[in-house]
């Protein structure tokens, strides 16, 4: 399975991460066709603070049928944007369950 992981992070200090509840916790989900024929959907997830959080969410979403790639724009302690490329639009309930399995909640 093709997996594309990109972590984009904004600076945050340790105090901000601690106030955000630490490690491990969206949904703008209108599908849009990607240039190569894949469908791209973006979701918002709150509470991710580090690369481990990103890996957990990426691993769960990559396990969904048809997923070709996952990109995460990490905003430590804020709302991170997760973009999923797949061969067809994903069901929101499936995405919600995968993100929940990683320990987070869609917003």
Automatic annotation (TrEMBL):
Domain of life assignment: Bacteria
Annotated signal peptide: none
UniProt keyword terms in alphabetical order: Metal-binding
Sequence ranges assigned to domain HMA in this UniProt record: 39-107
Pfam entry (one): HMA
GO MF term list: metal ion binding
Protein name: HMA domain-containing protein
